[in-house]
Amino acid sequence: MLTLTCPCCGTTAEETEFAPGGEAHLKRVGPGSDDAAFEEYMFLRENPKGVHFERWRHAYGCGKWFHAARCTVTMDVFGTYSAQVTEPPQEIRDRISARRPGWSWREFA
Ligand SMILES: [Zn+2]
């Protein structure tokens, strides 16, 4: 069972209290983009074996969206943070690097 802490209200609960919202930190494209960029945005998602960044909503609590960094293999949660940021906070990245040497943050431009 995955246990998450909502960074908005501080509640720690099992995943059944939350609703998954897919991959976090997607680069959105709009009118004027080329077909390849739109296809990537619309259909292609990361499916890593390891560190992953996801959007979650505290569905049975405060109702707010947030981001979670976790390992898809071990279910380790490296941390949760605001959904109002475009990339994981340095504190979260440092925590991941400490537990997963060799891991590196990919560039989102
Ligand atoms: Zn909450």
TrEMBL record:
Gene Ontology molecular function: sarcosine oxidase activity
GO biological process, one term: tetrahydrofolate metabolic process
InterPro entries: SoxD, SoxD_sf
Pfam families: SoxD
UniProt name for this protein: Sarcosine oxidase subunit delta
